[in-house]
Design a protein that fits this description.
It contains eight helices and ten strands. By secondary structure, it is α/β, with parallel strands linked by helices. The protein has a five-stranded mixed beta sheet, with helices on one face. Strands 4-5-6-8-7 form a five-stranded mixed beta sheet. Helices cover 33% and strands 15% of the residues.
Length: 241
């Protein structure tokens, strides 16, 4: 069995289908999605529809991203968050135009069911953004950190490479897990478009919401597959650029 972990999709369904075609998951493979299924490109509602069908055919774990929570707030209340609209929410609204109440209810149920994190039997952690408690995710006081935190990745990027895990100055958070897989912070912000490891943290968000591709990584071997840059699937759209 392989474990395939997918970066932030942001409504880029056409890119997701290309990555799946390249990765060719088998029925016994586990597919872990790191969240942010919406807000960016015009296939937000279509992406959730696709994932609902996919989980009937494959073993899937769906994690909660910050954009998923924002989308749920709008779907359930109808209230518009101006910051959300500027951060990709406007395209999500357009995607839901004409989508009936039964489908919206199914999507809200899906968004409410998302997991904050996933731990596998090899002590690998999968989480959208990060966590702050030095003892690990089970001790986190502020659960929104799981899908809003950026300090975990900032810390991993700035980690002194000469430090060993036995060093008293090595970050306690990173000692808790064999590996950590995250999305949330687009690597295109530092000019990178392939999955990147810093310390024992792997960032799989290769900027699909911006000008980068969508990526999927095989956890055991670190082989990865990518779509073409997602904006090429959506000419005339700006995504989150």
């Amino acid at each position: 069995m392989r474990t395939l972990v997918f970066g932030d999709i942001h409504g880029g369904l056409r890119a997701l289908t290309e990555v799946l075609e390249k990765a060719t998951p088998e029925p016994e493979d586990l597919l872990i999605f790191l969240g942010d299924y919406v807000d960016g490109w015009s296939d937000a509602a279509e992406t959730i529809d696709f994932l609902l069908r996919l989980q009937k055919e494959r073993k899937c774990v769906f994690l909660r991203g910050n954009h998923d929570e924002l989308c749920l707030q709008w779907l359930s209340s109808g209230k518009e968050n101006p910051l959300w609209l500027k951060a990709g929410g406007l395209m999500t609204q357009k995607s839901y135009a004409g989508v009936g109440l039964p489908t919206r209810k199914r999507h809200m149920s899906f968004l409410r069911s998302l997991q904050d994190y996933h731990l596998d039997q090899s002590n690998r952690l999968y989480v959208h953004a990060g966590f702050t408690n030095p003892k690990g995710v089970r001790y986190e006081y502020f659960t929104k950190s799981f899908y809003w935190d950026r300090t975990l990745w900032e810390m991993a990027l700035s980690l002194n490479p000469v430090l060993s895990k036995e060093d008293r100055f090595y970050p306690a958070r990173l000692k808790q897990y064999k590996e950590i897989f995250i999305g949330h912070t687009a690597l295109t912000k530092i000019g990178i478009t392939t999955p990147l490891r810093a310390g024992n943290v792997w960032n799989i968000d290769t900027g699909a919401a911006h000008m980068g591709p969508l990526s999927a990584l095989e956890v055991q071997t670190k082989k990865f597959w990518q779509s073409q840059p997602v904006h090429l699937f959506y000419p005339g759209e700006t995504g989150r650029n």
